[in-house]
Amino acid sequence: MAPAPPPAVSFSPAEVQRRLAAGACWVRCGARLYDLTGFLRHHPGGEQLLRARAGQDVSADLDGPPHRHSANARLWLEQYYVGDLQGDPQVGPGRGHRPPTLPADLVDWRKPLLWQVGHLGEKYDEWVHQPVIRPIRLFHSDLIESLSKSVWYSVPVIWMPLMLYLSWSYYQTLAQGNVRLFESFSTEYSVAMPESVFPGLFIMGLFLWSLLEYLIHRFLFHMKPPSNSYYLIMLHFVLHGQHHKAPFDDSRLVFPPVPASLGIALFYLILRLLLPEAVGGVLFVGGLLGYVIYDMIHYYLHFGSPHKGSYLYHMKAHHAKHHFAFQKSGFGISSKLWDHFFHTLIPEEPHLKMQ
C-alpha cells in the first residue's frame, strides 16, 4: 500500500519538545511517535484539534468520542510514523497501542500505475480503497501525464468566462422574444420563453447539475469493475480510483481541462438536441456554474480549513468518512440533498459530540 516505514528511531522527550517548539505537530500512541505536521490541513476535525493534541498520547482519541476511527484511518496514521519515544516507563513499547500492519505493495510505485492495476483482479477493490499519502503517476508519456493533472484555479479561469459569455448571449436571444418551447412538436401549444424565464432556467441548470454530480459519482465513479476485466479496472482507476488511492494528491483533485471538455460538450449537445438552443443553453450555463462550484468545493474539502461548525466543516467531515470508511455511501460533494433523497447518507455514529 505504501512505502516501507523507516527503521525504528528513538527520540528523547527533550528532542520531541524541541520539535514541538519549532512548530511541528507530533503525537504518540503509546511509545510510537507520529509527525502529523503535513496532515494538519487535511484533518476533517480541523487543524486546531490536532494542534491541541500535539505531544500527547492520542490512543484513546482513535476510539472516540467524537467517533471511532476506521481501519483505513489507522493505516493512514501509520504512514506518518517516525520512531519511538524513549526514557519513559509509562509509554514503553506495546503499551496502550498495537499498530496495524501496513499491507504489502501490490504495485511498483516507480512505474506508471495505470498499466498495473488491471492485473490486481479481485484484490483491486480493497487495494484502491486503502489510501496513501504519495502522488500517483498514471502514464509513461510526460505529455499525456501532464494532461491528466490540473491545478485547482484552472477550473474557474477556463470555465467562468465561458459561462458568463454564454449567459449574456442566451439572455440576449431570449430578449428578442422569438423563442418558443415545444414549437417543434406543435405551434398551437408552444410556450413563449421571454427573458424573464432566464433566472428560473439558470437555477434549474444548477439543480440539474447537482443531480448529475450525485449520479456520476455513485454509478460511474463507484462502479465495481469485474475482477476479471483488465480494461474496466483501468477505466475505473483513471476515472476515480486514483483519487481514492491518493486523496491528497493536489494535482488530481479537480477535473483536467481536456477530459472535462469532453464531458461538458456532451452535456451541451444533449440539451441542444432536446430543447431550443436558448433554453438548453441557459440550462447548460447554470449547470456549468454548478460544475465549477462542485470542483472548487471538492478541492476545499481536501485542502481547506473551514470554520468549526460551518456548513463546509460538516461537509469536510462527511467527505472524509466517504474516503476512509463509507465508500458505498455519501456520494454528494457540494451537498447531501440527493443522499437524503436516495437514502445513501453516511450513518450517524452514536453519541457524536463536537470537540
Automatic annotation (TrEMBL):
<dbReference type="GO" id="GO:0005789">
    <property type="term" value="C:endoplasmic reticulum membrane"/>
</dbReference>
<comment type="similarity">
    <text>Belongs to the sterol desaturase family. SCS7 subfamily.</text>
</comment>
<comment type="function">
    <text>Plays an essential role in the synthesis of galactosphingolipids of the myelin sheath. Responsible for the synthesis of sphingolipids and glycosphingolipids involved in the formation of epidermal lamellar bodies critical for skin permeability barrier.</text>
</comment>
<keyword id="KW-0408">Iron</keyword>
<feature type="transmembrane region" description="Helical">
    <location>
        <begin position="281"/>
        <end position="301"/>
    </location>
</feature>
<dbReference type="Pfam" id="PF00173">
    <property type="entry name" value="Cyt-b5"/>
</dbReference>
<dbReference type="Pfam" id="PF04116">
    <property type="entry name" value="FA_hydroxylase"/>
</dbReference>
<keyword id="KW-1133">Transmembrane helix</keyword>
<keyword id="KW-0812">Transmembrane</keyword>
<dbReference type="GO" id="GO:0006633">
    <property type="term" value="P:fatty acid biosynthetic process"/>
</dbReference>
<feature type="binding site">
    <location>
        <position position="302"/>
    </location>
    <ligand>
        <name>Zn(2+)</name>
    </ligand>
</feature>
<dbReference type="GO" id="GO:0005506">
    <property type="term" value="F:iron ion binding"/>
</dbReference>
<keyword id="KW-0746">Sphingolipid metabolism</keyword>
<dbReference type="InterPro" id="IPR006694">
    <property type="entry name" value="Fatty_acid_hydroxylase"/>
</dbReference>
<keyword id="KW-0472">Membrane</keyword>
<keyword id="KW-0479">Metal-binding</keyword>
<dbReference type="InterPro" id="IPR014430">
    <property type="entry name" value="Scs7"/>
</dbReference>
<keyword id="KW-0862">Zinc</keyword>
<feature type="transmembrane region" description="Helical">
    <location>
        <begin position="197"/>
        <end position="216"/>
    </location>
</feature>
<feature type="binding site">
    <location>
        <position position="323"/>
    </location>
    <ligand>
        <name>Zn(2+)</name>
    </ligand>
</feature>
<keyword id="KW-0560">Oxidoreductase</keyword>
<keyword id="KW-0492">Microsome</keyword>
<feature type="transmembrane region" description="Helical">
    <location>
        <begin position="253"/>
        <end position="275"/>
    </location>
</feature>
<keyword id="KW-0276">Fatty acid metabolism</keyword>
<feature type="domain" description="Cytochrome b5 heme-binding">
    <location>
        <begin position="8"/>
        <end position="86"/>
    </location>
</feature>
<dbReference type="GO" id="GO:0046513">
    <property type="term" value="P:ceramide biosynthetic process"/>
</dbReference>
<comment type="function">
    <text>FA2H is stereospecific for the production of (R)-2-hydroxy fatty acids. Plays an essential role in the synthesis of galactosphingolipids of the myelin sheath. Responsible for the synthesis of sphingolipids and glycosphingolipids involved in the formation of epidermal lamellar bodies critical for skin permeability barrier.</text>
</comment>
<protein>
    <recommendedName>
        <fullName>Fatty acid 2-hydroxylase</fullName>
        <ecNumber>1.-.-.-</ecNumber>
    </recommendedName>
</protein>
<feature type="transmembrane region" description="Helical">
    <location>
        <begin position="151"/>
        <end position="171"/>
    </location>
</feature>
<dbReference type="InterPro" id="IPR018506">
    <property type="entry name" value="Cyt_B5_heme-BS"/>
</dbReference>
<feature type="binding site">
    <location>
        <position position="298"/>
    </location>
    <ligand>
        <name>Zn(2+)</name>
    </ligand>
</feature>
<keyword id="KW-0349">Heme</keyword>
<keyword id="KW-0256">Endoplasmic reticulum</keyword>
<feature type="binding site">
    <location>
        <position position="217"/>
    </location>
    <ligand>
        <name>Zn(2+)</name>
    </ligand>
</feature>
<feature type="binding site">
    <location>
        <position position="319"/>
    </location>
    <ligand>
        <name>Zn(2+)</name>
    </ligand>
</feature>
<feature type="binding site" description="axial binding residue">
    <location>
        <position position="43"/>
    </location>
    <ligand>
        <name>heme</name>
    </ligand>
</feature>
<keyword id="KW-0444">Lipid biosynthesis</keyword>
<dbReference type="GO" id="GO:0080132">
    <property type="term" value="F:fatty acid 2-hydroxylase activity"/>
</dbReference>
<feature type="binding site">
    <location>
        <position position="222"/>
    </location>
    <ligand>
        <name>Zn(2+)</name>
    </ligand>
</feature>
<dbReference type="InterPro" id="IPR001199">
    <property type="entry name" value="Cyt_B5-like_heme/steroid-bd"/>
</dbReference>
<keyword id="KW-0443">Lipid metabolism</keyword>
<comment type="pathway">
    <text>Lipid metabolism; fatty acid metabolism.</text>
</comment>
